[in-house]
Amino acid sequence: MLDCVATWDRCLEYIGQNITMSTYKAWFEPLKPLQIDGDTLTLEVPSMHFMETLETKYLKNLSGALRTVIGPKAQLQYKINVAENVGVTEPSKGEATPKLPDGYPKVPRPKNGDENFNPFMPIGVHHMNVDPQLNENFTFENFVDGECNRLASSVAHAVAEKPGDTPFNPLFIYGNSGVGKTHLIQAIGAEVKRRNPLKNVIYLSANRFMRQYMEATKDNNIAGFVKFFQQIDVLIVDDVQELAGKTGTELVFFTIFNHLHQNRKQIVMAADKKPVDIMGLEERLLTRFKAGMIVEILTPDYDTRVGIIKKKTAKDGIELPDDVVDYIASNLTTNVREIEGSLISLLARATLTHCDVSLDIARQVVGNLVKNTPQEISVESIVNTVCEFYGIDTSVLQKNSRKREIVIARQVAMYLCKELTTTSLSTIGAKLGNRNHSTVLYACKSVATQIEVDKDFQMQVKRIEAKIRG
Hints:
19 helices; alpha/beta; Rossmann fold; Helicase, Ruva Protein, domain 3; GMP Synthetase, Chain A, domain 3; about 50% helix
């Protein structure tokens, strides 16, 4: 205790040299040193609001003092004095309120002098019986890897193997609706539970988290709410963008987030956009979201769509004809949910009419899901459109010219042939000057990379694709 107090006194000397006396008395004198363990100093703070202000306004002063006194690896932990003030801001109006998750503890409001109650300490974690709220179908085995999601899938596997013990904490996955984010983040939870059934894992949407917080506020049980989530080993939150603008919910989520992260518990989040694009998200949350791994899942490419169709039908013991698989994969390009819906409708219609699944039935089903079913797109039509756009003759692409404009046109043609048709890479290469499979693959990757870094080039490709689709 003496070392702890002496260490904090030295920190205060450093802090006092860089702030006014009124600030010092208001925000630093109330802090009480509790213990020092190696390079980690634990301070008691009067309330959550107090801690939030320190983090927002004076973190630089604190970190500078600790690193000067303790060393470059110094860390700071907080203990909230809930006996004096639970300290969670009241929620904003309009935040609705349903039931809390299974295993949620009804903790009575602490009384003054209750030294045993500390929501920041993982008390009795192994006795919790938490329903993880996971969909049993959302596993890694049922997830189809492809170019669109390979990085996200690789990171998710690494997190599931060593939750909280990788550089990917927090893990933030974003992408458009229906590209597989929910499946992948739930697969992490399923794999963690498979490897270690005693781990406390929970999946929920940000909206549900918000409503549970409202229920806790209504029941005067915020302390129990916070304690429950601070005992989770792997917290998985979907649709995180829904937290934006909900002041009370953001505050309590921030508190839980900090505790879990400090204690090396895994946090996994998903949203429809990357953190910096979420309007209304508080800066302190944005900063923490960006501290881990942020990875995007793109719209499934053709090969991935084919893999999804085959995996889902194989699971049901059904084998679709290749032309049906190709037709669905070529025409339902937006998201996985459309593909799933088409398969359900397709199989139901075939069963009710006692007919085999055919291309005609597939056309009818897909026609109900998309406004305008695209016409068949050929390699020839793509080449003609690309050459027309760049103002060159189609015969030029067959030659070995290394002029920049010819190379770009040829690579764009190869890329669009791969994306918009079912033609194999070898066939695409054969139709564009007898190039081999690896040449076409290199061209496709080059175009995809250029699209990501060059907005003008991206718009060119999009305009060409729009012309091709008519």
